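Hey all, quick one. A colleague (J.T.) asked me to put the 3-phosphoglyceric acid job into the tracker so the inputs and the structure tokens live in one place instead of scattered across chat threads. No bug as far as I know, just bookkeeping. Sequence used:
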Amino acid sequence: MSITPTQASAEAARICEAAPIVPVLVVEDASRAAGLAGALIRGGLPALEVTLRTPAALDAIRAMAEVPGGIAGAGTLLTPEDVIAAKQAGAKFGVSPGATDKLLDAANEVGLPMLPGASTASEAMALLERGYHVQKFFPAEAAGGAPFLKSLASPLPQIRFCPTGGVSPDNAQSYLSLPNVICAGGSWVAPKDAVAQGDWDQIETLARAAAALPR
Ligand code: 3PG
């Protein structure tokens, strides 16, 4: 069932409002996916972005989609084929580092709510023109960080952003306190070693701290 960009952004907003942080996950071993999702969800982070950067990613989304209380999504969507594969794996939302017409058209056609990326005023305006009022700001720190986003709030108050890329426990608050930030994305809540070792207690603790960040 197809959706409009406005509907996609409304759904993206609902997902972003579930918690201050969306974990950005690189899953190497799909057999770890359910355990990882469970730890993050128990810690208070239900929306999960599994990046399509590993051969295991789609199986990881399939596994996470079955975990109660979670909202499994797919990140690093670059092509219409990625969109279709993510949707078929059960992703409830999609994230892309930037945006192309082909990518957005495919997502709307298959009904995958997108959080498309922008890193300049013109890119944000082009997405807004299409109806996307919730956008990813990527790569957040490298593209100007919280001061840049703060500067967009006055001329573009109708856009809310999910900054991702270089967001950490040290700087998350500087983003989350901005009026035009709806949530932030970050990989720190799922350190590679902890995932490989199945150290779900550590990940749950990191998630709990992230979920408690004020916004
Ligand atoms: C990424 O590209 O992997 C995401 O933006 C997450 O970035 P981070 O590892 O800096 O949180």
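Adding what we noticed when we looked at it: The chain has a mean pLDDT of 98. Strands lie at 21-25, 47-51, 71-75, 94-95, 114-115, 117-118, 134-137, 160-163, 184-186.
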